[in-house]
Amino acid sequence: MLIVQKYGGSSLANASLICAAARRVTGLARQGAQVVVVVSAQGDTTDELLEKAGFVNEAGSAREMDMYLSCGEQLSAALLAMAIGGQSWPAVSLTGWQAGIETDSTHQNARILGLCNGRIRQELEQGRIVVVTGFQGVNGKGDITTLGRGGSDTTAVALAAFLKADLCQIFTDVDGVYDRDPRRYPDAVRFSRISYDNMLRLIQDGAQVLHDRSVELARDYQIPVEVLSAFTGLPGTVVGP
Ligand code: ADP
Ligand code: ASP
Ligand code: MG
Fold first, then answer.
1. CATH of the domain at 104
2. What is the pLDDT along the chain (241 residues), one digit of tens a residue?
3. Ligand 1 binding pocket includes 182 (Cβ within 6 Å)
4. 9 lines ligand 1 (CB under 6 A)
5. pTM of the model
6. Structural domain count, the chain
7. CA nearest ligand 1 atom 15, residue
């Protein structure tokens, strides 16, 4: 059984949340699953990096922005791998390029093309939990690219597709997909299932709970994706056929 889990920024915002994620993935590994964890930058890190970059150059080059913004995910990945080690399970963190996530060259909005090495598989076969930085990859020139805001979801679905995972779960700060943003509309209604096309319509109407390309990829590869709360771990919404 191969499981891909993705944790968003608010689900990793502090040390105790990092440790909670470490306990969850270690629990799965102890039950015999192979686990790939995709992480976002902690909390508001990406926004803070964007603000800092703006102070030195309001229109910094897209290549340098990718070099800079991709660091947020790298910090999360190493921290989570260390937390998993603290749970007495072997783990390794990999950047987009170490994991072989090949993209086109559209800096700040790159598209994933494929996996160009076998590193994740090799690490899984060694019994390690593999923690992969979301939101980033490498282009043909060897430069770091990023996938656009919210792009870690797409990293997770792409890895689930390329590794033929049995399960792809997106952990976030709400307990599923609703007909409207549940933070703004307390009477929003939660779906237990939603089709790819209806999910894409919600995103077009402004629901940023999933990155649009993650849903397109899930649809193209027919991968069911569960969106659920990192705080409760209770069943969420399955985005599927
Ligand atoms: P993460 O950091 O985990 O990637 P995001 O902030 O990208 O989380 O997405 C989760 C947020 O999406 C929720 O906090 C919620 O306010 C917002 N959201 C907007 N529309 C919806 C919707 N229709 N259903 C669920 N959440 C939604
Ligand atoms: N950290 C990136 C962002 O804030 C990617 C992600 O969270 O998915 O957009
Ligand atoms: Mg997101």
1. 3.40.1160.10
2. 999 999 999 999 999 999 999 999 999 999 999 999 999 999 999 999 999 999 999 998 999 999 999 999 999 999 999 999 999 999 999 999 999 999 999 999 999 999 999 999 999 999 999 999 999 999 999 999 999 999 999 999 999 999 999 999 999 999 999 999 999 999 999 999 999 999 999 999 999 999 999 999 999 999 999 999 999 989 999 999 9
3. yes
4. yes
5. 0.98
6. 1
7. 181
